Structures are given as C-alpha cells and as structure tokens.
C-alpha cells in the first residue's frame, strides 16, 4: 500500500459524497475527505486539497452532480436554474485551469439537451457524465504516457516542475505519465523535481509519488535548475499545463516559463504534456489567460515554524505563468505530439 494505491478524486461507494485525498496534508498524513456540501467542495478546490487541472475538473463534475441530487426543483426550469447557480459557483473557485469550466460546461450541457426527460432521469445522466469525465481522464493520461515515452530512453534524466502526476489527475498524471508507464515496463529514470515554491507541490507531492513508484527521484530547490541543466543531468523537461492557447502558449505553475528559457539556452527539449481538455481553442494566445493571484501568507508563512518575512512586506504571488510557444519542443496530448507551428498542429488535433 503506497500513495499510488489511493485515488486522488472519486465518488464514495454509495455515490453520495465526493472522496478526495487531502493533498495539503501530504506527504506526512494520508487523509481522505468525504464532502457533500457544495461550499466544502468549493473550499477543497480553492485551498488545493484537491488540485491539478484534470483533478479539479473531475472534482467539480462530481460536485455538480451531488448538488443536482440535492436540488428539489418543481420543474425542469427550476432545476436548470439551480444547476446553473451551482455551475457558476464551483467555477469561481479557481480561474486559470480550463479543465474546471470545461468539466462543468460538459455536465451542464447534458442537462441542457435533456429537456424532455424527467428530473430523476437527468440526475442519472449527470452521474454517468461525471463518471465518464473521470474514466476518460485515465485513458487520456495513459495515452499521453505512451506518446511521451517515445521522447525518452531508459535511464534518461528528466526535470519536472510542480506536480503533474497521478495526484493531479485520475491516474498516471500528464507530465509524469511517461515515467509511470516506463516503470510498468521495467524502465527507470532520474527525475529532478523542482520543489516549486511557494506551495511545494514538487517537494511534497511529485517526489512522494515518484519514490512510491521506485523512480530515482532527486529533489532540488527551484533556483538549482540551471545548475543541474548545465551539469548535463537533464535530457528533457516534462511539465503539465493548466490552459494552452490555440497558438500553443502554455500556462502552468509559476516557475515553468523560466525553465523553458533555461532549456533553450542549454539546448534541452522542453515538452508540455496535457489532455485536450486543457487546450482552450477559444483563446488565441496566452495573453488572454487569467493568472490566479493567491494570498501573501503562502509566501511569507506557510510551511515555516515562524513567519519568515518582515510584517507588512508587500508580496506578489501569481500562481501561474505562461510559456511562449516558441520555447516548446512539443505538446504531448492523448492524440499524439503536436509540433510547431502549434496554430496548425493543434487545429488538426481538434479537427
Ligand atoms: O496550483 P496547482 O497545484 O493546482 O497547479 C497545478 C499545476 O500547475 C500542474 O502542473 C497542472 O495543473 C497540470 S496537472 C496534470
């Protein structure tokens, strides 16, 4: 039994609550939360108890289903009004990862096109849709893993940022999927995990999940990445994504774009791995992506026994950044590897 045997997000056995592995407690404590109240689900997404673009989409889909179960509406229109309110509310938990609105819109559409059905029938369709979003995510991640594995060899050195692993998805992960899949086939890799300030997803989550899979895992502080690349330890950089624009500009955890700039300098291929549910073809470039701003305390206090910065200091805490498409060697999706120019290759994938 290790961390990979737990599901990061699911419905409980009776399908009446959302079950999440509380990622804020990892790696020291494995705690499962059972949530039924929509405010608790919103809070779990906002506080990163459940996190990672695909996982928050799945959690929101289950959340919307659970809210639909509770709706005691007189007719279809009253039901849809309640569902719409819940959709907007859950969507407001985090702005950057498109998977959140993608999953909620997909759920809402199921109800929208079911005007002729009874409310209990629509609730059942919503249950099936949420479960499908989850199982499709597993399949997409496995396929991303297959494509990503063609980019690396046994024994390769890989650098990753944040956590785009199983914990951030339903299974396998995105950036870490090739590594988990490679392990299933007896391969091993040397994986350098950026600790990922300020919330330490790399230190707390990625290194934990990779070690559980027997991967040679090396934790580095974010400011060590250049040195590790310079020493020739990195054959490729694999990162996840929260929203990819139609031109391939890719938004991911803060610190990602700096790695891409370094990778270009050192001649190391920089790959973004993510399902098509993370590609937002409605936006032309990364400039249109809303970057989530988070609380100053995440920088000044969290993880420290005592506050470590002077009281009153100004803090800027953007949670994501956008990597220019020209720095990206390939975008690995479940349908294959898109190569530059991305405006064409991504369009072909969606066609
Ligand atoms: O703030 P987080 O921890 O939700 O940010 C997550 C990331 O940036 C991941 O790299 C991204 O969601 C890809 S997860 C497969």
Structure in words:
With 351 residues, the chain is an alpha/beta fold. It is 40% helix and 15% strand. It is built from eleven helices and 14 strands. The chain has helices at 38-46, 53-70, 76-91, 98-112, 119-149, 177-184, 201-212, 225-230, 256-266, 297-300, 342-350; strands at 9-11, 18-21, 32-35, 157-160, 190-194, 216-220, 236-239, 243-245, 250-253, 270-273, 279-280, 320-323, 330-333, 336-338. The strands form three sheets. A seven-stranded mixed sheet has the order 6-5-4-7-10-13-14. It has a four-stranded mixed sheet with strand order 11-8-9-12, with helices on one face. Strands 1-2-3 form a three-stranded antiparallel sheet. Helix 2 (53-70) packs antiparallel against helix 3 and helix 2 (53-70) runs antiparallel to helix 5 (119-149). The chain is globular. The model has no long low-confidence stretch (mean pLDDT 98). Bound molecules: 5-S-methyl-1-O-phosphono-5-thio-D-ribulose.
The main β sheet shows up as:
7 strands, mixed
Per DSSP E runs of 2 or more residues, the count of β-strands stands at 14
Strand order of the biggest β-sheet: 6-5-4-7-10-13-14
Helix content: 25-40%
Separation of the first and last Cα atoms: 42 Å
Structural class computed from helices and strand pairing: alpha/beta
What is the compact description of this entry?
By secondary structure, the protein is of the alpha/beta class. The protein has helices at 38-46, 53-70, 76-91, 98-112, 119-149, 177-184, 201-212, 225-230, 256-266, 297-300, 342-350; strands spanning 9-11, 18-21, 32-35, 157-160, 190-194, 216-220, 236-239, 243-245, 250-253, 270-273, 279-280, 320-323, 330-333, 336-338.
């Amino acid at each position: 039994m290790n961390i990979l045997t737990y599901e990061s997000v699911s419905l409980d056995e009776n399908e009446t609550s959302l079950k999440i592995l509380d990622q804020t407690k990892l790696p020291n404590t494995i705690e499962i939360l059972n949530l039924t109240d929509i405010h608790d689900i919103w809070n779990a997404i906002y506080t990163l108890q459940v996190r990672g673009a695909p996982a928050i989409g799945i959690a929101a889909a289950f959340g919307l289903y659970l809210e639909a179960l509770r709706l005691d509406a007189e007719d279809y229109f009253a039901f849809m009004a309640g569902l719409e309110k819940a959709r907007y509310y859950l969507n407001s938990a985090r702005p950057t990862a498109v998977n959140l609105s993608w999953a909620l819109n997909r759920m809402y559409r199921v109800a929208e096109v079911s005007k002729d059905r009874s409310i209990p029938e629509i609730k059942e369709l919503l249950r099936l849709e949420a479960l499908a979003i989850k199982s499709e995510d597993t399949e997409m991640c496995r396929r991303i893993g297959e494509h990503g594995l063609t980019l690396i060899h046994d024994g390769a050195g890989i650098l990753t940022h944040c956590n785009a692993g199983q914990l951030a998805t339903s299974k396998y992960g995105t950036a870490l999927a090739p590594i988990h899949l490679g392990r299933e086939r007896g391969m091993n890799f040397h994986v350098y995990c950026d600790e990922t300030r300020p919330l330490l997803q790399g230190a707390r989550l990625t290194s934990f999940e990779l070690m559980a899979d027997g991967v040679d895992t090396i934790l580095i502080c974010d400011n060590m990445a250049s040195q590790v690349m310079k020493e020739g330890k990195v054959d490729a950089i694999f990162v996840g994504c929260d929203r990819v624009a139609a031109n391939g500009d890719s938004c991911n955890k803060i610190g990602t774009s700096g790695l891409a700039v370094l990778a270009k300098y050192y001649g190391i291929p920089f790959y973004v791995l993510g399902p098509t549910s993370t590609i937002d073809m409605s936006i032309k470039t990364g400039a249109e992506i809303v970057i989530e701003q988070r609380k100053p305390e995440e920088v000044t206090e969290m993880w420290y026994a005592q506050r470590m910065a002077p009281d009153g200091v100004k803090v800027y805490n953007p949670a994501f950044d956008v990597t220019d498409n020209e720095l990206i060697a390939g975008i690995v999706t479940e349908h294959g590897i898109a190569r530059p120019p991305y405006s064409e290759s991504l369009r072909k994938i969606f066609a």
